[in-house]
Design a protein that fits this description.
Blueprint lengths: L2 E2 L6 E2 L2 H11 L8 H8 L17 H11 L4 H15 L5 H23 L8 H6 L21 H4 L2 H8 L5 H11 L9 E2 L7 E6 L4 E6 H23 L5 H16 L1 H17 L1 H15 L2
Antiparallel strand pairs: 1-2, 3-4, 4-5
């Protein structure tokens, strides 16, 4: 039996998943009864930004825009101010850096042993994170940006965006490989898959200042949703610079990614291999940061 959200038409295999979706994305009261949740899902809702009235295809895209990109949202301005302050405070004294290096090397050694035994059940993820089982402690020369906070519409120029969109069905693959594995953007190496058989992946957490073990499937869903959102924005910005044929094919690909679970699952497998095949680049980057910091 399938459970469908009446607001955004997403399908879920269980009522519990639909309830959590309604609570997280449609702000349903945690104490509301099942019949009331279904009634809430049928209510008419708009996907317009509450600050600038920009329209979006999905509620998730609208929420992400309001939280991270909308220039009329005063909360975003405060977040930008905080990020600017963090950047200004990014330099450490040499003696503190040396202590960090010693600590990092010890953690890295412990985690190399962990990775050999990394076929971990998802239920152990919370315990792993509470016990400090992580890839690195995040205290490095390169300030890693948490997934979803990359602001790629400001990072990439129009030529780069056009090059990505012209790949059409492979645009998602190219964008993820460019942003998350390219030496030009070390600050965006915020996701990592080290084992194809394990159900565990790793995602950088800005609050914890370290990589945390997370469910691999949820990690891939989160990554794909964020990058498809970027591709939608790229398309709206530079559609006029594309040939009519490529623009039409790009629009069809975006629509399919938003509405066809089978295509999304196929892309998920392709993205998983991209991250796995580039795992050494991320680990090499961590080693390089240590060499840069050592005196």
């Amino acid at each position: 039996m399938a459970y469908k959200c009446k607001v955004c038409d997403k399908d879920y295999s269980s009522y519990k998943s639909l309830w959590y979706h309604n609570y997280k994305y449609h702000k349903v009261d945690v104490n509301i009864e099942k019949k009331d949740v279904n009634a809430m899902s049928t209510s008419v809702n708009t996907n317009k930004c509450n600050f600038c009235n920009k329209e979006f295809n999905t509620r998730q895209s609208k929420s992400r825009h309001e939280l991270h990109y909308c220039k009329n949202n005063k909360l975003k301005e405060k977040d930008d101010e905080i990020q600017a302050l963090k950047k200004e405070l990014g330099e450490y004294k040499k003696d503190i850096i040396k202590d960090i290096i010693v600590e990092y090397k010890e953690i890295k050694k412990q985690n190399e042993e962990l990775m050999k035994l990394l076929k971990v059940h998802p239920k152990t993820l919370t315990k792993m994170n509470n016990n400090g089982c992580l890839i690195n402690n995040g205290t490095m020369n390169v300030q890693i940006v948490q997934l979803g906070h990359e602001n790629l519409h400001e990072v990439l120029n129009d030529n780069q965006k056009l090059s990505i969109l012209n790949k059409q069905a492979m645009s998602l693959n190219q964008l993820i490989e460019l942003i998350h594995t390219n030496p030009e953007f070390t600050q965006f190496r915020n996701v990592c898959i080290t084992n194809l058989q394990s159900s565990v992946g790793f995602k950088y957490c800005d609050k914890a200042k370290k990589f945390l073990a997370v469910n691999k499937n949820e990690l891939l869903n989160d990554l794909i949703e964020n990058r498809i959102y970027d591709i939608q924005n790229f398309y709206k910005e530079i559609e006029s610079k594309m040939t009519p044929d490529k623009a039409n094919k790009m629009k069809k690909f975006i629509d399919r990614m938003l509405n066809e679970p089978e295509l999304k699952n196929l892309k998920k497998e392709e993205i998983k291999l991209i991250l796995y095949n580039n795992r050494d680049k991320i680990n090499t980057e961590l080693d390089n940061n240590l060499k840069e910091l050592e005196i």
